[in-house]
C-alpha cells in the first residue's frame, strides 16, 4: 500500500503545527457523509469508474490493439482535464524517452503526443514529426465546444482529408459526451469510432474514463491494474475512521493548515517519472477548490494555491524559499521506489570532497536528499508530510490518483462548495468568444472594445 506520514504536520514536530485533537471535528464527519452518500451520483460518478467499466475496458483494449497494428503515431487533441491525466500517466509508466525508442522496444506502441495548447509553433512542429498516413488522432472534449481542441480538430481533419480523402475518418477517435456538444454530432455524421465520457464525470476527474484509458491501453499500460489500484483506494477511503482514511485525513490536515495561513501547497515528487502527476494534481486542486461562493451562495473565496516542484532538481531553486520564506506553505513530499539501481563507480578520485559519493548509488543520493530536505524543513518549522509509493507501477499509480481525487472531493465538502464547477474559467472563455465575433456575445465584444480613459502603460 501507499503510505502517508503526517507526523511533521503536528505541533509535536513543528512550531505552529496542528494539535491532533483539532483534527476530529463534526465538519469532518459531515464532509465524509456528504461524499460517501453521493458516491456514483450527480457529478460524483467518477468515484465508481474503477468498478463499473468492464464492457468499455474490453472495447478499449480491442481498439488499442488495432491502433498498434495500423498506426505509428497516436496524438491526443485535448486540454485541461482532457489532457493532463494522459500526460501524467504516460510519463509515469512509459519509458522516459518513449518516442526515441524503436517500435519493438516500445512494445509495438505508437509514438505518443498530447497537444494541450493552441500554440501555433507546437502545432506546426507536430506535423514535422509525424506521418499523417500513419497517425491516429484521439480528439477528447466532453463539451465538444472547447475552442482550443475544436480548432485543432478542424486543422487536423482538413489536412487528413487532403491527404487521405474519404478514408480520413479512420484516423480519428472521438472521446466525448454521448448526449451533448458538437463533437458527438460530428462523430455520428462522419462515423468516427467513439468513446463516451459519462455525464457525471467532469474533465479533471476523468482520467479513469476512456479519456485516459484509451491512450494508456494504446501505450501498453496495464489499465486493469490501474483500475484495481483505484478501486482499492476507494475501499480504503470509504472508512469513516479518519485515522485509516488517507484522503479524508489529507483534506482535513490541509484545511487545518490553511486555517493557520498555509495558503500554498507544494507537491514535490522525488522522481522524474512523477513530475507530471504534480501538474495533473495542480489542476485538480486549483480548479475544484478555488471558489468564490459556497453552496448557499455566501461569498467565501476559498482555495489553496497548488505548486509543482521536483526533487531533487528544485532543491537548487525553490527550497530556499520553502525553508526561509513566509510560513504559508505545506510541502508534500512524494517518494517512491525505483526499478533501476544506478551505481556510482567505486574508484576514488583525487578530490576528497567528491570521494564520499564513490561506491554509492544514485538511488541513495535521491533518498538521502529527500530525507535531508524534509529534516531541514521540519527543523525550520515548516509543515510537511510524505506520501510513499513502494514503486511506480499501474496499481500504485491508480491508488495515488484516486486518493488525490477523493481528497479533493472531501475538501470541497468541508468547504461546502461546488467542487465540480469552474465559473471562474467561463469569464475568460466568454471573452474569447466575444473577441472572435461569435454570435450571442456582441454586448461583451462592445465592452471589451472600450479603451479606458486612463491607461498605465510603460
Ligand atoms: O476540469 C475541467 O472540467 C476542465 O479542465 C476541462 O477538462 C477542460 O476545460 C476541457 O473541457 P472539454 O473536455 O469540454 O474540452
List keywords for this structure.
458 residues, alpha/beta, 5-stranded mixed β-sheet, 5-stranded parallel β-sheet, 16 helices, 12 strands, 13% strand, globular, binds 5-phosphoarabinonic acid
State the share of residues found in helices, binned by percent.
40-55%
**Unique ligands:** 5-phosphoarabinonic acid
What proportion of the residues form beta strands (DSSP E)?
A: 5-15%
Measured on Cα atoms, how large is the radius of gyration? 24 Å
User: Which blocks of ≥5 consecutive residues have pLDDT under 50?
Assistant: none
**Oligomeric grouping of the chains:** single chain
Number of helices: 16
Note the gap between the termini.
56 Å
Shape summary: globular
Extended strand count: 12
Mean pLDDT: 96
Protein described:
With 458 residues, the protein is an alpha/beta fold. It has 16 helices and twelve strands. Helix 3 (84-93) packs parallel to helix 7 (210-218). The longest helix is centred in the C-terminal third of the chain and has 22 residues, at 394-415. The relative contact order is 0.15. Residues 79-82, 141-143, 146, 149, 202-204, 287, 422 line the site of 5-phosphoarabinonic acid. 5-phosphoarabinonic acid binds next to loops.
Amino acid at each position: 500500500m501507499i503510505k502517508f506520514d503526517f507526523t511533521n504536520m503536528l505541533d509535536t514536530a513543528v512550531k505552529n503545527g496542528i494539535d491532533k485533537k483539532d483534527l476530529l471535528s463534526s465538519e469532518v464527519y459531515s464532509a465524509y457523509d456528504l461524499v460517501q452518500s453521493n458516491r456514483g451520483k450527480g457529478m460524483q460518478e467518477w468515484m465508481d469508474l474503477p468498478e463499473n467499466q468492464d464492457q468499455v475496458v474490453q472495447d478499449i483494449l480491442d481498439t488499442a490493439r488495432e491502433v498498434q497494428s495500423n498506426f505509428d503515431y497516436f496524438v491526443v487533441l485535448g486540454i485541461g482535464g482532457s489532457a493532463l491525466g494522459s500526460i501524467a500517466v504516460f510519463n509515469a509508466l512509459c519509458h522516459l524517452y518513449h518516442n526515441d525508442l524503436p517500435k519493438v522496444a516500445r512494445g509495438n506502441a505508437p509514438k505518443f503526443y498530447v497537444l494541450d495548447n493552441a500554440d501555433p509553433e507546437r502545432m506546426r512542429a507536430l506535423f514535422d514529426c509525424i506521418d499523417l498516413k500513419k497517425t491516429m488522432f484521439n480528439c477528447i472534449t466532453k463539451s465538444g465546444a472547447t475552442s482550443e481542441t475544436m480548432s485543432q480538430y478542424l486543422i487536423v481533419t482538413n489536412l487528413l482529408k487532403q491527404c487521405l480523402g474519404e478514408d480520413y475518418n479512420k484516423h480519428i477517435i472521438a472521446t466525448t459526451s454521448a448526449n451533448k456538444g458538437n463533437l458527438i454530432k460530428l462523430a455520428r455524421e462522419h462515423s468516427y469510432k467513439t468513446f463516451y465520457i459519462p455525464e457525471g464525470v467532469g474533465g479533471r476527474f476523468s482520467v479513469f474514463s476512456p479519456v485516459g484509458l484509451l491512450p494508456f491501453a494504446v501505450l501498453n499500460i496495464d489499465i486493469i491494474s490501474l483500475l484495481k489500484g483505484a478501486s482499492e483506494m476507494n475501499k480504503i477511503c470509504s472508512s469513516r475512521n479518519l485515522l485509516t482514511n488517507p484522503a479524508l485525513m489529507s483534506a482535513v490536515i490541509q484545511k487545518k493548515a490553511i486555517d493557520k495561513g498555509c495558503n500554498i501547497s507544494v507537491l514535490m515528487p522525488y522522481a522524474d517519472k512523477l513530475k507530471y502527476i504534480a501538474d495533473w494534481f495542480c489542476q485538480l486542486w486549483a480548479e475544484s477548490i478555488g471558489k468564490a461562493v459556497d453552496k448557499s451562495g455566501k461569498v467565501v473565496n476559498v482555495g489553496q494555491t497548488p505548486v509543482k516542484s521536483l526533487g531533487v532538481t528544485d532543491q537548487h531553486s525553490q527550497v530556499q524559499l520553502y525553508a526561509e520564506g513566509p510560513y504559508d506553505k505545506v510541502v508534500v513530499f512524494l517518494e517512491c521506489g525505483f526499478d533501476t539501481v544506478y551505481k556510482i563507480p567505486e574508484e576514488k578520485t583525487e578530490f576528497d570532497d567528491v570521494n564520499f559519493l564513490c561506491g554509492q548509488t544514485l538511488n541513495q543520493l535521491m533518498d538521502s536528499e529527500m530525507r535531508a530536505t524534509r529534516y531541514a524543513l521540519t527543523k525550520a518549522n515548516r509543515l510537511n508530510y510524505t506520501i510513499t509509493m513502494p514503486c511506480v507501477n499501474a496499481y500504485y499509480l491508480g491508488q495515488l490518483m484516486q486518493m488525490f481525487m477523493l481528497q479533493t472531493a472531501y475538501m470541497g465538502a468541508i468547504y461546502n462548495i461546488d467542487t465540480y464547477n469552474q465559473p471562474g474559467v467561463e469569464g475568460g472563455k466568454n471573452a474569447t468568444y466575444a473577441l472572435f465575433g461569435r454570435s450571442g456575445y456582441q454586448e461583451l465584444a462592445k465592452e471589451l472594445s472600450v479603451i479606458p480613459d486612463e491607461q498605465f502603460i510603460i
